[in-house]
Design goal:
With 236 residues, the protein is of the alpha+beta class. It folds into two domains: 55 residues, no CATH class; 173 residues, Bacterial polysaccharide co-polymerase-like (2-Layer Sandwich). Helix content is 59%, strand content 18%. Strand 2 and strand 3 form a beta hairpin. Keywords: Membrane, Transmembrane, Transmembrane helix.
């Protein structure tokens, strides 16, 4: 029995580790230009609330494009799907903080993944902000060029004023600045081996004990039946 228990304990699962990184998501004063012909909501405060914005960022962190960037930056062969299965992302508390939790077969892997996803998303947001600024500049330039052939100076001034007001209305979504507030520097075991091994050993001992008792009971019944048969044969 001892040998079987030892064999069962040796079949323990591999260690897993967990690391956490936190990001601060804060809006900037700069703005992103939207479609000038899109109608505005009656109350835009309900459309882009902080809570909804944080959950949007959390979903974007878990996107294939961010996972692909993590693969490239860390130079690993793990598929994007497998990488995404190793992380979970959610807002923390009532502030502007998002937590990335990563698991790995080693502490180093968990830390690298948590920080890797954080840095990849920061780069992603930076590129998106740059694209938004370029789009805003292009929109303004095109608007001014289209006004260049106005026949009267007064008309040009009026149209510029109207266009300026339109651009202010269009800028309803703030650009976002994201930074790491708590970088993952250590990882913790998610399932201590001592506890797991103790549970496994207890289950195996209980199973083997029950099996031994069943076999013993069957042996007693067999011997009893054999004795009865012998008595009957003797009387005959």
């Amino acid at each position: 029995m001892g040998a079987l228990v030892a064999a069962g304990v040796s079949m323990r699962q591999a260690e897993t580790f967990e690391a956490k990184t936190r990001l601060l998501v804060e809006p900037q004063d700069e703005t992103r230009v939207l479609d000038p012909y899109a109608p505005l909501p009656a109350d835009d405060s309900t459309v882009d609330s902080p809570g909804r914005r944080l959950w949007t960022h959390a979903e974007q962190i878990q996107s294939d494009s961010v996972a692909a960037e993590v693969r490239r930056s860390l130079r690993i062969d793990t598929s994007t799907r497998e990488l995404l299965e190793q992380i979970s992302v959610s807002p923390v508390g009532l502030g502007y903080t998002i937590q990335i939790t990563a698991t790995g077969d080693s502490a180093e892997e968990a830390i690298a993944l948590a920080n890797g996803f954080a840095n990849a998303y920061i780069s992603h947001v930076g590129e998106r902000n740059a694209d938004a600024k370029a789009a805003a500049a292009s929109t303004i330039t095109e608007g001014l060029e289209s006004m260049g052939d106005a026949s009267a100076q007064g008309e040009v001034v009026d149209r510029l004023a109207v266009r300026a007001d339109e651009l202010l209305i269009e800028a309803t979504l703030p650009l976002t600045n994201i930074s790491v507030v708590n970088e993952a520097v250590e990882a913790t075991r998610t399932a201590p081996l001592v506890f797991r091994d103790a549970v496994l050993a207890a289950v195996l001992v209980a199973f083997l004990t029950a099996g031994t008792m069943i076999l013993a009971a069957q042996g007693r019944r067999g011997r009893s039946g054999a004795g009865v048969a012998a008595d009957v044969h003797g009387h005959q």
